[in-house]
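Worked example 2:
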Amino acid sequence: MFSPLIYSPQPIYNVSLPSGGDPLKIDVNAQYAGLEWNYIYIVFCGFIVWLIIPGIGLLYSGLARRKSALALLFQSLMIVAVTTFQWMFWGYSLAYARDGGPFFGNLKNFGLKNVMAAPSPGSDVLPEIVFCFYQLLFCACTVMIVVGGAFERGNMLPSLVFSFCWATAVYCPVAYWTWNSNGWLYNLPSLDFAGGGPVHIASGWSALAYALVLGKRKHLDETTHGKPHNTTLVFLGTTLIWFGWFGFNGGSALNASVRAMLAAFNTNTAACMGVLGWVLVDSTKNRGKFSVVGACEGAIAGLVGITPAAGFVSVWLAAVIGFLTSIICAMLQDVNKWLRIDEGMDVFKLHGIGGMAGAFLTGIFASRSIAALDGATEAAGGIDGNGIQVGKQFAEICAISAYSFTVSVCLLVVMKWIPIPCMSLRVHEEAEMIGLDRTQFVDEQIGERAILDDLFASSSPASASVVVNESPGSVVGSKVLKG
């Protein structure tokens, strides 16, 4: 294989200078002379990946009932704050330390010690601080997906504590298995370009665990809810997620190669085919009627499905993966009812099931000629005659599913029995009925609740006034408001 950096000497990691050199004595930038375009590209990808986090917050907020919408917006900012601290504290070291066993990292980079100008463990053309920042955003996005399992009845403070613990006990080990050169899945090898396992399968099963331990919402009228309170927010959140995913998949080549550009093209292709697949199923079920929320779910299903395959398949096969993944997820719309679990954000359906479908299809469609577009990677799937790769993908699916679900349940059960009132995983029944916005934020007279309602209310002045002044049990006409 030829080097992707044929025109420039490739930086080499020096064990004796783990930080990349003393900037008071040498120019630490000199080793990347002529290669700056690689890390500029990855930094840009990181910036747009960040948009996925508020995008998920907007999506969740739109899907929830109005009385808990603000809580989900607030949580998106808190999650990225807590996860950043966790990553700086020990998360990065646990996931990407250069030496360790096949299952877990170590604390040699505790507190980001020596994480600065040396070539990164993921790519020699990236300073380690750039690689660390980019991977931080993957962790934050994943944690934000997970907390969707607690919507409308999860207490805010315990969810943040759980986020810190989950990132430590679940995300970091699974990321280590998958992407660290010492990890057992990396050396199996399983093929996961951008996070089908650590991001989607892990978050889907963990959100299911969260919903299971919390139990179903109380006083939920399924005839009036189960539908988003604000479709515009759902649409806006989806577009931010879609845009951010260009950086998520496009940057996962960890260089500005042709492979990275193809991954971005595949991302858009799979999302578009996901929309078509989901709308096809929806319109068939609903006698030709369409659904904006369904189209948004289809886009996300397509994005999830292509994540592990984006740098391994051609554009047309990316279209097949996006279409098939969305069809599978759309056909399983009642999975929560079958499981008898109240996971109202459909995290398990879209990310868990979609992630498993994408990982499996990657094993079938991965192509040597596509993987080699970065000048270095060797990988092949069933389409190239390497049928055993499908079995390796299945091993990845089973291992990550079992580990993430089991550890998440254990973490949540331990937290559930902590005898501290403010650490109760679930809000009180009265707070759930009133809504998280009114019980966990400043008094509505200060304006946050009223502002939210003004933005989300319909254009009718009458309906807007009803929203602002609603309270559980209030009677409007002959109907009782239920949120």
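The longest strand covers residues 475-476. The first helix runs from residue 36 to 50.
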